[in-house]
Specification:
The chain is an alpha+beta fold. Among the domains are: 4-190, no CATH class; 280-415, Jelly Rolls (Sandwich), CATH 2.60.120; 583-594 and 649-845, no CATH class; 601-645, no CATH class. It has 34 helices and 22 strands.
């Protein structure tokens, strides 16, 4: 009921304007004489108070009165209101005793809206969002009844988010008491959201295909071969910040064609086509490790501009002749790089081959030889050194550092002894075939094929396979292996191609446990749960242990132990790479478009030196002693600047990403508080990143945990170069982007997209005459626009607090000669002087906001869909658990796994999901 209280104490009233007093009648009720008793006895009491009258609410035209313009009257208004309300409250309990209890939120949320919620909104909110006021085009008293209010969950979701974020009521207005906030939260969840705490809705079913990373990981686990999905498939689109969200994983005809190509290529590489071969050892680039104890480089990617040695030892069981095949690849950046490098391959210390290589696009070169070897240990090594030619050194100086060359040890195989009659199964044979050799009779062959393909399809489809599907697969195999010159193995391989191209493999189709047909929600079956777990924590298919427990119906009862096992497994690195890489944008670091020439302050000088450099004759380096002293000084300066700028290379960017990834991994694997991500006294560094930060005493290429010096501004995500780089512009920092990042990824209160008509900050610079303004000054001008003020009030203080870090994440005290001013005030009212105080403030005052943000991000990643208002109860449960357990990472992960959205699904038919996947599959074919 929309009532307005007016106190007859001079001009002071809630309305703040002259108004004729008339008997109050709620707009949504039939007209009543003012002498008629109100149905609720407590409300009748109001008519007996001498100095209080009720005035009929009328819809008033909007007045463009900003909230700040009304502050002056507030103190007197509230004093008058408080006196009136105290009289009401003092006698309200007696009326309730005479007339019965007010309706409870649990039993009647429709009635509770008027009895419990409207009074709170009137007290704290209607001043700006009611009684005809509509600041932000947001009106709270728009509902004519409790039933209408309960029917708009999206509206109340917005209200709840603003209240929880502390954005509303404004900082200069009274805040809701904890019990009032709890009452509104409970009503919103039980009323408009219609949440049943005992049987929560798990949300819509998300039928999603595997994304590129999941597909690659699944192929490697299922087929046992190395496969680089990035060479064949384009990056996936993202939704809600992640590329595993169902709505964003579209299917096109081109993608379907690539899946078929991949299925054939993978099967050809993984499934043996014969029964027995000469023994063979196979190695890939990752098997070759750096000889330097401080380096973790492998043969998979070696920078041609840096000296590196990688090697691999192996053991032979018998003397004899061995066929050695070595394949290498040359890689380069998109643009040509003239750099050259020398490669020397040694076998047991003797040079097998050497070559000078350079930029190329994935070029494969193979070397083959026959070696006579005794039994025992042998070793193959690759030594890469950059080629520096005196004649070209002057040209190298003008290299802008934006291109690169890389060498890869693609594959190495050792086959033999060639004289042996003791043949063996090919590598991977036992993965697919369970017998030493295929049977001879057609019936036994068909039965054996059915056994193989049912087992493989069950793993590939991550669920049970019906006999009709198995029969069709056997038909495919039989149609091949019955042909002349074909083998049983090649026929099975052809059926495996069909499995890998099937929607049941490409899409994650899940089923529910058998349940009462009248139930709306049911637990997913244990095989589906195993799949959800593995793709959540490993971005890959479930392993044998998970599948075994699921098939026995024992996975749920062993869930905590399995989660611990999975988090401790090396495969959980994929969780860090994919969840952290997207949540904190560490994936974007390598391609961050930040110009070190400008950021380090050398752009103008370097350009002048380059222009001078181009005037020098070729070959001048050999006549360097004849150069005038002035030119010699310029050349030395040119070389010095290039050495400084070239430190910002791909290796540094990889270290910057690894700092954040390993930092979060440490928090996860050591089960420390998530709040360490906001503020702590340690980080992870190698020598190159430590030098970049100005931290001494760190040597080597390996990342390690480093205690930060006393008083260091570092510590926590906000001070790491990964976040600072990806939120910067190419030539300067961006307090706006940094503030947006914190709102979205730390506090969970993202700002809406900026209007398309908003001008660039630099367009306001002419207001400062000849003086170059600071970013703080430009943002202050920008906030003068009412269209921009509300959002920038939230994000600017956060972004400006990080201005001591430049666009490369390095510390600075000034910007363009002006001292940095990092102090600020959050929209919630707290003040800070620098980034150290901001980090402390976030950790101590906004822990719940951070818990809620990380919980929502992790739920999106885990279930593959965006948050719904029906998920609020789940999020609240998880935040409560985090608060009670010092924010431990294991509590977060296990709470997400225990949640209704993860454990349950809306009751549907598994065939319906399969049909959906097939429809998407066919839709891609027809686009």
């Amino acid at each position: 009921m929309l009532w307005r209280l007016r106190c007859l104490m001079g001009h002071v009233s809630w309305q703040r304007r002259p108004m004729k007093c008339v008997p109050m009648v709620p707009d949504h009720l039939p007209h009543l004489e003012h002498t008629q008793a109100h149905p609720h006895p407590a409300l009748n009491l109001m008519n007996s108070i001498d100095r209080i009258q009720f005035c009929k609410v009328s819809r008033l035209p909007h007045r463009a009165t900003h909230h700040r313009d009304r502050i002056v009257n507030r103190t007197n208004e509230r004093l008058a209101i408080a006196i009136a309300l105290s009289l009401i409250v003092s006698i309200m309990p007696q009326a309730i005793l005479r007339g019965g209890e007010l309706p409870s939120i649990e039993s009647d949320p429709v009635a509770a809206y008027e009895s419990d919620i409207v009074p709170i909104l009137q007290q704290y909110c209607y001043d700006c969002h009611g009684y005809g006021e509509r600041e932000g085009n947001f009106v709270l008293d728009q509902f004519s009844s409790g039933q209408e209010a309960n029917a708009d969950p999206i509206f109340w979701w917005r209200v709840l988010k603003n209240l929880r974020a502390g954005v509303m009521p404004p900082v200069d207005s009274p805040k809701l008491k904890p019990e009032e906030m709890a009452r509104i939260t409970r009503w919103v969840k039980l009323g408009p959201f219609h949440i049943d705490p005992e049987n929560p809705d798990p949300g819509p079913i998300a039928v999603r295909r595997m994304n590129r990373q999941e597909y690659g990981n699944t192929v490697r686990s299922l087929m046992g071969v190395d496969f680089d999905e990035k060479l064949l498939f384009p990056p996936d689109d993202s939704g809600h910040g992640f590329d595993n969200v169902a709505d964003a994983l579209m299917v096109s005809p081109l993608l379907l064609d690539k899946y078929l190509q991949a299925a054939e290529m993978i099967t050809d590489r993984a499934v043996p086509s014969v029964t027995k071969i000469i023994p063979r050892l196979d190695f890939r680039g990752d098997d070759f490790k750096s000889t330097s104890p401080d380096s973790d480089r492998t043969g998979r990617s070696i920078d041609g501009k840096k000296t590196t040695t990688v090697e691999r030892a192996f053991k032979l069981d018998a003397d004899g002749q061995y066929n050695v095949t070595i394949g290498t690849k040359q890689h380069g950046s998109f643009e040509f790089d003239p750099a050259r490098y020398h490669v020397t391959c040694k076998i047991d210390g003797e040079v097998a081959f050497e070559s000078e290589l350079g930029w190329d696009e994935n070029k494969l070169t193979e070397f083959t030889s026959v070696k006579g070897w005794p039994a025992g240990e042998h070793r193959i090594s690759f030594h890469v050194t950059p080629v520096v030619q005196e004649n070209d050194e002057d040209e190298d100086l003008d290299d802008d550092g934006g291109t690169h060359v890389h060498f890869e040890v693609y594959r190495v195989s050792v086959e033999g002894p060639l004289e042996t009659n003791d043949l063996v199964h090919p590598r991977n044979y036992e993965r697919f075939f369970t017998r030493d050799a295929p049977p001879e009779s057609p019936e036994e062959r068909r039965d054996y094929a059915a056994e193989i393909l049912q087992r493989f399809a069950t793993r590939a489809f991550r669920g049970k396979v019906d006999s009709v599907t198995v029969g069709r697969l056997v038909d495919i195999a039989e149609s091949v292996y019955t042909q002349p010159n074909e083998t049983f193995e090649s026929g099975v391989g052809r059926a495996i191609v069909a499995i890998l191209a099937s929607p049941k493999f490409l899409f994650r189709i899940e089923s529910a446990e058998a349940t009462d047909p009248h139930q709306r929600f049911a637990p997913v079956d244990e095989l589906s749960l195993a799949s959800r777990l593995s793709y959540f924590l490993w971005s890959s298919m479930p392993d044998d242990e998970l599948v075994g427990l699921a098939e026995q119906g024992k996975l749920r009862e062993n869930l905590p132990q399995q989660v611990d096992r999975m988090l401790a497994d090396k495969r959980a690195d994929a969780f860090i790479a994919n969840f952290v890489g997207q949540w904190l944008r560490t994936r974007d670091v390598v391609n961050a478009n930040v110009d070190p020439n400008v950021i380090l302050g050398y752009a103008d000088e370097l350009e002048e030196l380059r222009e001078w450099f181009k005037t020098l004759p070729r070959g001048f380096f050999r006549r360097r002693g004849e150069m005038p002293a002035e030119d010699q000084a310029k050349l030395d300066r040119f070389r010095e600047i290039r050495r400084i700028v070239d430190r910002v290379d791909d290796d540094l960017k990889r270290s910057i990403r690894r700092e954040t990834d390993e930092f979060v991994e440490y928090v996860m694997r050591n089960d420390v508080s998530l709040l360490d991500l906001l503020d702590c006294n340690y980080t992870f560094l190698d020598a190159q990143l430590a030098e970049h930060y100005g931290i001494e005493g760190i040597k080597g290429e390996k990342m390690r945990r480093v205690e930060l010096p006393e008083g260091s501004p570092r510590g926590g995500l906000l001070t790491q170069a990964s976040m600072l780089m990806v939120t910067s512009n190419p030539t300067r920092t961006s307090p706006v982007k940094r503030g947006l990042f914190i709102l979205d990824n730390i506090l969970g209160t993202p700002a809406p997209p900026a209007p398309g008509v908003v001008p660039e900050l630099e367009e306001s610079a002419d207001r400062f005459g000849d003086r170059e303004p600071t970013l703080r000054e430009l943002l202050a001008v920008h906030r003068e626009d009412a269209l921009c003020a509300s959002c920038h009030a939230r994000m600017d203080p956060l972004g400006l607090a990080l201005e001591n870090f430049d666009a490369l994440g390095m510390w600075r005290e000034t910007d363009n000669g002006s001292p940095i001013e990092p102090q600020g005030e959050l929209v919630t009212g707290e003040t800070f002087n620098d980034v150290r105080e901001l980090k402390k403030l976030l950790r101590e005052n906004h822990a719940d906001d951070f818990y809620r943000c990380v919980t929502e991000k992790l739920l999106v990643f885990a279930i593959g869909r965006g948050m719904e208002y029906s998920d609020e109860h789940t999020v609240d449960i998880i935040v409560d658990k985090l608060r009670a357990n010092d924010g431990k990472f294991s509590v977060l992960v296990k709470a997400v796994i225990d949640s209704a959205p993860f454990q349950m699904q809306r009751v549907t038919n598994v065939d319906h999901q399969a049909n959906q996947a097939s429809d998407i599959h066919r839709g891609g074919e027809g686009q």
